[in-house]
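Section 3.1: Structural characterization of target chains.
Under the original work plan, the team committed to producing a structural model for every single-chain target entering the pipeline before any wet-lab resources were allocated. The record below documents one such target. The sequence was received from the expression subgroup and is listed exactly as submitted; it comprises 67 residues.
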Amino acid sequence: MTKAATITVTLPNGELAKRKTARAYTHAVCTNTGVISFCGSFELAQKRIRACHPEVQPTLTILPVNA
């Protein structure tokens, strides 16, 4: 079993969002102030945005997870 690590994402407003996980996430779908979803690839992040309500989609951004 892989040991859990803390991953971070720098949000558009400059804050850091953290998550402790053993999974390998590469991207996060974010609003200006929070994370909607962590994803394992850019393509999965795009798919996650398409699954959101059309009114919300323009406010979401895909950001890389900090290494």
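The mean pLDDT is 94.
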